[in-house]
Amino acid sequence: MKFKGRDIISIKDFNRKEIDYILKTAETIEPLAKSGSDMLHGKMLATLFFEPSTRTRLSFEAAMHKLGGSAIGFAKPEIASVKKGENLADTIRVVENYADVIALRHPLEGAARLAAEFAQIPIINAGSGAEEHPTQALLDLYTILKEKNQIDRLNIALIGDLRYGRTVHSLAYALSLYDVKLHLISPELLRMRREVLDAIKKKIEVAERTGMEEALPEIDVLYMTRIQKERFADMAEYAKVKSAYKIDCDVLENVKKDMVIMHPLPRIDEIADEVDATPHARYFQQVWNGIIVRMALLALILGATE
Ligand code: NCD
Questions:
Q1: 45-69: buried (b, 16+ CB within 10 Å) or exposed (e) per residue?
Q2: Cβ distance 116 to 123 under 8 Å?
Q3: pLDDT digit string (tens) for 211-220?
Q4: Smallest Cα–Cα separation from 134: which of 290, 305, 248?
Q5: Contact predicate 301/122, CB 8 Å
Q6: pLDDT level of residue 298 (50, 70, 90 thresholds)
Q7: How many helices (H) and strands (E) are present in the chain, helices listed first?
Q8: Mind listing the pLDDT tens digit for each residue in 161-180?
Q9: According to the model, what pLDDT value does residue 78 have?
């Protein structure tokens, strides 16, 4: 298995063996998230974020620092030469002179793939429009594995905006490599993208519905998502679905005792604050796991670990 020098553009570029290997590496690297290491001393990460982010950018940078490397980048394209009209290919060809790896977030689908075609150094897709968010899927899998000791044989529900949510696209592809039952719960308008649905249905059992109540009692992992307001072309359509689902303590009366609730964050109103204090909540644990998984990915891609 070779990771050194590899791009991470789509989770579909990885098979189960490779994903399991990344998760295993994350497990071994976890103690270093506390103690620190100089594994990536002298290495530079560039984070180029053309869309808002808190967790993804900061956790990539934190991961790099914890392994003894450095990070540069921009979080607002308005302050970069992009604002002057520089195209993505030129931006990449410039930045690769400063860095050993680039994490890119861009509103356009296909942007990360395009960047990788121009770059001599590895590109990590940190979110490409509504399409994919592969490193989020890896940290989601890591969280499931830590919480449940296995991914196989679980009933997993993805709830909310399955049309525009890129995290659920990558996660659904990844989960289709395991023996899981996937419950896709969304408003009709925000059903799982056709291409994702077609691909995963060939591999695993998938149940689609609009109501969440009937499915809840059998769910092991409930993955909640935000309705992606910024991706709607028509705000009247958004208004129809904006508060479609809400998890609160009443809803939790009907769930398995050990069901875990995950969310890529940010949340808007889909999980009530009162849920945070219940033993089900794992979304802040996911944030911590994000650093660990990104440490593992950087170490693998930059050849510091095999
Ligand atoms: C997600 C994203 O940017 O796609 N956030 C994240 O990276 N954790 C989810 C979202 O914005 O809803």
A1: bbbbbbbebebbbbbbbbbbebbbb
A2: yes
A3: 999 999 999 9
A4: 290
A5: yes
A6: very high
A7: 9, 9
A8: 999 999 999 999 999 999 99
A9: 78
| More confident site: 82 or 122 | 122
Q: Is the shortest distance between the CB of 105 and ligand 1 below 6 Å?
A: no
DSSP-based three-state secondary structure for 182 = strand
Round to the nearest angstrom and report the end-to-end CA distance of the chain. 9
Q: Where are the alpha helices (DSSP H) in the chain?
A: 16-35, 55-66, 88-95, 111-118, 134-148, 166-175, 194-201, 235-241, 283-301
114 is written with which tokens? 């395009």
Cβ neighbourhood burial of 240 (10 Å; 0-12, 13-18, 19+): middle
**For 55-87, what is the HEC assignment?**
HHHHHHHHHHHHCCCEEEEECCHHHCHHHHCCC
Q: How far is the CA of 167 from the centre of ligand 1 (A)?
A: 7
Task: Establish whether residue 106 lines the binding site of ligand 1, counting it when its CB lies within 6 angstroms of any ligand atom.
Answer: no
Q: In what order do the strands lie in the sheet with 101-106?
A: 70-74, 44-49, 101-106, 123-128
Q: Residue 79's pLDDT is what?
A: 72
What are the DSSP calls for 3-35, one per residue? -TT--B--GGG--HHHHHHHHHHHHHHHHHHHH
Domains of the chain, start order:
11-132+290-301 (3.40.50.1370), 134-287 (3.40.50.1370)
Q: Is the CB of 136 under 6 A from ligand 1?
A: yes
Instruction: Report which ligand 1 atom has the smallest distance to the Cα of 264.
Output: 8
Q: Tokens representing 287?
A: 């944030």
From the list 2, 84, 194, 202, the catalytic residue is 84
Indicate if 28 belongs to the active site. no
Per the annotation, the verdict on 280 as an active-site residue is no
Q: Which amino acid is at 174?
A: A
